[in-house]
Fold each of these.
Amino acid sequence: TNTSFSTTAPALLNSTSNQLYLHFHTDISVVAAGFHLEYKTVGLTTCPEPVIPANGIKNGDRYMVNEVVSFSCEPGYMLQGHSHMTCMPGTVRRWNYPPPLCIAKCGGTLYDMSNVVLSPGFPGNYPGNLDCTWRIMLPVGYGGCAESWLWISCLEITASNAFVSPLFCTLHGFADIHIFYYFFLLAYELQNCQDPYPFHNGYIINSDFNAGQSITFECFPGYVLVGHHVLTCQHGINRKWNHPFPRCEAPCGYNVTAPNGTIFSPEYPNEYPDSQDCTWLITVPHGHGVYINFTLLQTESHNPTPYLNLTTTLLTINKQQIRIVLRQK
């Protein structure tokens, strides 16, 4: 609205809307004839309809004086220029800023849980000699996946998670020919890999089952690890270990070279299977013997009975090697 303060008759005034406010104030020092004015209704001209930028969205459809329209861009594009425009008063109606543009920029930082990354100039070909980096910053506990439609000369995607700071993913591309790429990014809540417990007859080193973390499996004395010793939690929406869980078994015989150890019957502490023929060979350094101490010995009482055979009946054996044979007939 135009505002005028004067003691003389002003020039012709035009309101900028359908309301005009007139305020007359006097004091006790002066009196005068006053004023006489006439007004009439005139049509207000509007600002021209603003141009909607390519790949952009306009909000607002009133173009009178002091009306405001705003602009935003479709996913993947960034606004270049002013997001709000106001229709200005005057003999010629005009907007206070030119219409903005929506462009696919070369790099940037994104904080949205889902968004689109476009090559510069998309859907057209991008220029040559570009070096663009996009960083996607997500809250702690979230990761990102990307679905792409691309034909590019080079694009590198790296991701890292410090577990104390937001996960970020960096898309880095450099171009030397005229092509394009399109990435749709979607955030998802990070899940841990499957809990490996209970792990019978052994223990696990590291209790962090998040993506990128590794856990180590160890067996108690007398058991042998079957499977992979170290497992790593893989990245992705569905978190999985890179190998199946191993297990610790009491095997049916093997060669023993440790100076001290434990030997169990097969599948101990469960019952041993039928039809077993197992041999353990204990070998210690020259000049040493082997001392055998049975803390438990239980076999079937019916005939034919399983038997455990040692190469000698002595508990202390002054030999370098001892062979233990378990047979069930």
Amino acid sequence: MAKRVTIGDVAARAGVSTATVSRVLNGGVATEATATRVWDAVTRLEYTPNALTRGIFAGRSNALGVVIRDLSSPFYLGLLRGIDDVAAANDSLVMVANTFRNVDHEVDLVRMMDEHRVRGLVTTTDERTDSRTRHMAENGTPCVIVARTAQDPPSGLHSVSLDHVGAGRLMAMHLIECGRSSIGVVTSGGRPSQIERVAGLRQAFTQRGRSLAEEAVTVATTEEEVDRAVGTLLARADDRRRPLDALACTAGRLTVAVHTALTARGITIPDDIAFLTMDDFSWAPALGISVITQPSYQMGRRAAELVVDPPAEPVSIVFEPALVARRSCGERANV
């Protein structure tokens, strides 16, 4: 096995000390002749600097830490692309960890990111990790919470989120405009984004002189629970003698499961029931599924920019949702 070239080999080739090589590689002061000899030795020996050693001397690595709750959501793919593009442009490595929605694991992963002295942290974790994230920010590591707003953030703690109430309002207005009147909602639980989207749905219905009954909203925290949730909504509507003519899903990661639950029951979209969900994905156009989109790529870029060029004061950035109308709500029939 070939021996890895070391900084000592470069120093010997250039005829200088290892301290001089380190200084040149890190942009320190050196004469032009010395720098030329060092870089020539680096090139000829194909030397790769040790990022770990650099991090030790700098007191921080050059990696940008990202803690994701659930990579099954289409939202996170665009988010990661945006983060990676900014990191690459700033000579940073992206260190990604997926928590699988396990809060204890989330806390551990944020702690480990801190222990690895990442350049900064972008996190989509539960509120119960905020004390650890806040601790990192207070100790000089820029942190960005994505998908919700940080409460009373200290310097160094920022947030990038969506207008979730606006997303819910867009859902309600589109379904109403498509002539739907008996609407059920599948949401994924108590996350601020889910609560605010349902609140937006209610607001829009109220403004149109309608209401969204409590029993018209059901929670499914996992894909396995979705079939039961859809069945419950259909049964409740039938009991009220107002069969559902629309179903809204406020969590993009549950889209496939909700769509499957409807079609498995022989329900035709949109003839029997309109279907509207969050977050666009690769096969949505082929199936004609209408969606409320959030600009995940732009959100990822902005989050990473807050890490690589951190502002002095906390920043909270809110992006606007958009409707992509296809045909799953009966749009063509209403043209």
